[in-house]
Write a structure and sequence with these properties.
Length: 449
């Protein structure tokens, strides 16, 4: 019989996996000789197995799927999990993945389900809203008033609006109803990664800029600014024609462009990108424009960086740029405009509030920089705008409160709450509850301030 010794337990901790990753779930077999876990290293989550005694580690099943819980059979031979919404079982030795077929019919009373969701959301706000007095409103009265519309609603577009109207009575951020219809086989328009002359009225598309990092930003590319794309996959582009339809569902596929350059014509092959990828290229383009503007106006003395989101990847980018390309600048312009939030205010507060306390002098020569080496120790200033939201409000707030530097820009609406977005029994419907208030020097929630 197994007897566990809990004495000095804190000194006998062991790291079961050999490396760190985003782990969705894990399970051990009965002997504790194998740990199965879903981890994301590349694209999506794969099923890994580690033997703690030997440290042998391998991918048991290459799935590239969604995060999931894991259950193991009583005989330790089979693992059960979900992958992109489908239930699967995995052979614990061979790693063979088999879909679990489910046959069943369900009679759905959509109206009754919407009534349940409506009542559930109302109760959740009652129990979990950050202000127990719910801003002093008659929350029961609003429930009854909006419930009268439920019998006339027969689709989730209108239901989303009803939920948003109800939750709007809270006068709070981080709430509202969302409807996300799923269309797995919908059409997608691809992008060439270029900007066009909107005033050009002739046949074809006249190029005014090639986006850095886009499909045409290649060493062997012959297409230049001022050239005109006259045909896509052999189909000529007429004047005033909406040519975007010729890029339908061509993301990542080879296409042939016919291009006119002066009096000559030639063909060029490329793979279009998604509109999302083009958006990222346009964001990088905007950051470069802002960086060059700051550099020009300050005669090269000020550094610039933009915080895209309050998340880990943005912080890594900020850390690299501040202590890399901007290390010799006299001060730093920190741009937070158009930031939708996350949870990074404390990291940024710590990083930008560094004060040098030690110099380094190899062979008697005092060099630039010292301790702390991992924080910005020179002046900074923060730019903000009306579009800052959530943690992109909290960060400028504490930056000012803690006296790190000055704020420049437009006032930011008080949206300083932490939210729980809850997916409903109908997974296309989501609503938010601002559950945690942040309270600063004023001694009151920063919401609506």
């Amino acid at each position: 019989m197994l007897e566990l010794d809990f004495n000095n337990l804190e000194y006998r901790r062991e790291k079961l996996t050999i490396n760190s990753a985003s782990i969705s779930d894990y399970v051990l077999n009965k002997e504790g000789s194998k740990v199965y876990y879903l981890a994301s290293f590349e694209k999506g989550y794969d099923l890994w197995v580690t033997e703690p005694r030997t440290r042998d580690t391998k991918i048991l099943a290459k799935m590239g799927g969604s995060p999931s819980g894991i259950e193991i059979s009583d005989d330790d031979k089979t693992l059960f999990l979900s992958n992109d919404g489908k239930l699967v079982k995995v052979d614990a030795e061979k790693g063979e993945v088999t879909n679990i077929q489910i046959a069943g019919d369900m009679q759905l009373d959509a109206s009754a389900e919407r009534n349940y969701i409506f009542d559930h959301i109302w109760r959740q706000v009652t129990k979990k809203f950050y202000d127990p007095k719910i801003h002093g409103i008659d929350w029961k009265m609003y429930h009854d008033a909006y419930a009268e519309f439920l019998p006339d609603i027969n689709n989730n577009y209108d239901f989303q609006e009803l939920l948003s109207e109800l939750l709007g009575e809270l006068n709070a951020s981080h709430t509202g109803g969302r409807y996300s219809p799923k269309n797995e086989h919908g059409d997608h328009t691809a992008s060439l990664g270029v900007l066009y002359d909107e005033n050009y009225t002739g046949e074809g598309i006249k190029i005014t800029e090639i986006l850095a990092g886009g499909p045409l930003d290649k060493a062997k590319n012959k297409i230049k600014i001022g050239d005109i794309i006259t045909a896509i996959n052999g189909k000529e582009i007429q004047a005033e024609e909406n040519w975007n339809k010729d890029l339908l569902n061509l993301e990542g596929k080879n296409i042939l462009l016919t291009v006119k350059s002066g009096s000559k014509s030639f063909s060029e092959t490329l793979k279009p990108i998604s509109m999302g990828e083009e958006y990222s290229l346009m964001y990088r383009r905007w950051v470069e424009i802002m960086k060059k503007k700051v550099d020009s106006l300050s005669n090269g003395t000020l550094g610039y960086l933009h915080i895209r989101g309050m998340n880990d990847s943005s912080f890594r980018d900020i850390y690299e740029r501040a202590l890399g390309e901007n290390i010799d600048k006299k001060a730093l312009v920190v741009d937070t405009r158009f930031n939708g939030g996350g949870w990074l205010h404390d990291d940024l507060n710590t990083f930008l509030s560094g004060e040098e306390y030690l110099k380094f002098a190899p062979q008697g020569n005092i060099i630039k920089g010292g301790e702390p080496m991992t924080r910005w120790t020179k002046p900074s200033i923060v730019i903000m705008s009306e579009s800052n939201y959530s943690d992109a409000y909290i960060f400028p707030y504490i930056y000012k409160q803690n006296g790190i530097g000055k704020l420049v820009g437009m006032p930011v609406a008080g949206t300083g709450t932490a939210v729980w977005w809850e997916q409903q029994i109908d997974p296309t419907i989501v609503f938010g509850i601002p559950m945690i208030a942040t309270i600063g020097k004023e001694g009151r929630p920063t919401e609506n301030m």
